[in-house]
Amino acid sequence: MSDFIPFALPDIGEEEIAEVVDSLKSGWITTGPKARRLEEDFAAFLGGGIEAVAVNSATAGLHLALEAAGIGPGDEVITTPYTFTATAEVIRYLGARPVFVDIDPSTLNIDPDGIEAAVTSRTKAIMPVHFAGLACDMERIIRIARRHGLMVIEDAAHALPSTCDGKLVGTLDSDAVVYSFYATKTITTGEGGMVVTRSSEMAKRCRVMRLHGISRDAFDRYVSTTPSWHYQVVAPGFKYNMTDLAASIGIHQLKKAYSFQKIRQVMTERYNDALADMPLRLPPEPPHGDMHAWHLYVIRLNDDCGISRDSFIESMSSLGIGCSVHFIPLHIHPYWRDTYSLSPEDYPYAYREYLRAVSLPLYTRMMEREQDRVIKAVKEILGC
């Protein structure tokens, strides 16, 4: 069998490696000048008065953003079941309740009509997820939020550098946006994330809470030329800071965000052209003029394709190709199912699309010949 084609691989260059080595030699490897530089670069990348707070994961970022938004016990946060568990678990961290709303099957994003119907007197925020890098209908979501006096925290783990109505995700009129820099994402720091907001108060709270609720960053205290050992613990915070080693990678990954997107776009078009006549549904395209980050390339097998989704993935693996499934809906996982007495039929579109969804390999290091192997395997398995 030929070499195995993984589902995803990071794309790390010599620039990233040199920056990490520089940090190692500098003697400052935890949160310090490189993390601050990445924050400044990220804020400049988005523009428009945005503040950026680097964290050690998007999960941490979502938790911090919700905490800064004042979410607490008894509150409700509306989100989608068609996501990774981190989106909802951070709501539970704060003693609040996630209220799931089904997806629009055409986009796999949360259905704004369902959001409107789910609002109650206990609802405090909406957390939309930009699935696969396709932006949600943020204009409608923000309009609903403002009408009901709700906060909007965007889970943009997949969405760098996606746009919505011609504007970068991260620059819209929501209260905070959280990105992921996990190893498989469109840019990576290995593990890491970023919270962005126009609210100086939210940014300040996130900075304090990401490091034990301490009033001053260790970097500021340890590099001062005058005695500055004193600090105050002002809240029971968390350990969510990004290291300089991770930020060193991110500094150069961010510079490649648009070039990486262009590569993913080309690969997506190659897939689309080759698979157009297959018994499957291609991923949804963004509205005209908008940019899809193409973090994932998710096909959905037709009911008459002649093979189950699970068997399809097993067959792809036997041909040396790694696939994945995004996502197993939260309402069929034991914790969420049992805690909130949920059944598959509660969110029928999320459940139906999950049963036929397959994420094909898509990463910037992928060669055309490797993509051709994937295409050939899909056609062979589907008998086309």
- Predict the CATH topology of the largest domain: Aspartate Aminotransferase, domain 2
Give helix % range.
25-40%
Q: Indicate how many domains the architecture comprises.
A: 2
CATH superfamily of the largest domain: Type I PLP-dependent aspartate aminotransferase-like (Major domain)
Uncertain spans, ≥5 residues at pLDDT below 50?
none
The overall pLDDT, averaged over residues, is 96
SSE pattern, N- to C-terminal: HHEHEHEHEHEEEEEHHHHEEHHHEH
CATH class of the largest domain: Alpha Beta
Task: Identify the strand order in the major beta sheet.
Answer: 1-9-8-5-4-2-3
Shape: globular
Percentage of β-strand residues: 5-15%
Number of strands: 12
Taking all Cα atoms into account, the compactness measure Rg is 21 Å
Straight-line distance between termini: 22 Å
Give the second-level CATH assignment, the architecture of the largest domain: 3-Layer(aba) Sandwich
Please outline the major beta sheet.
Answer: 7 strands, mixed
Structural class: alpha/beta
* Distinct helical segment count: 14
